[in-house]
Amino acid sequence: MNSSHDNYKKKLKEAGYKLTPQRIAIINVISENKGKHLSTEEIYDIVKQRNPEMGLATVYRTLQLLDELEVVSSLNLEDGCVRYELYCHTGEHNHHHLICSNCGAVIEVEGDLLEELEKKIEMEYDFKIMDHKVKFYGLCRNCKNLV
């Protein structure tokens, strides 16, 4: 078992859960598809190729648990489809997302673009910001050129 699995196992164990083969399979699929923001159904389709006995309900339940335990992070694009990626445990904010309103492409923006704004808000409102999620909607390079 690699060190990232050890981290997930520890996180699950602390919450009273085991790192089962089903959970490992789902974590592996998300990890292997970094940056793709897979939906539950897409994760299921990939997992099913490797583990034909795994059902869609198991994938849904596992993703919900892994999201609650901050092993994976859910991304709701308000299009009726939740997507998943591994949770960032660096102590920094997760990255931001650019979402194409035309084709649905999701592009990651690395780095925290809002540090100065956060500092200003914390000082002005005496509020400690722990995290934020930012989604920008617009047209990707390909769709922009079609307009």
From TrEMBL:
Keywords: DNA-binding, Repressor, Transcription, Transcription regulation, Zinc. This is Transcriptional repressor. InterPro entries: FUR, Fur_C, WH-like_DNA-bd_sf, WH_DNA-bd_sf. Belongs to the Fur family. SUPFAM superfamilies: Winged helix' DNA-binding domain. Pfam families: FUR (PF01475). It comes from Fusibacter paucivorans.
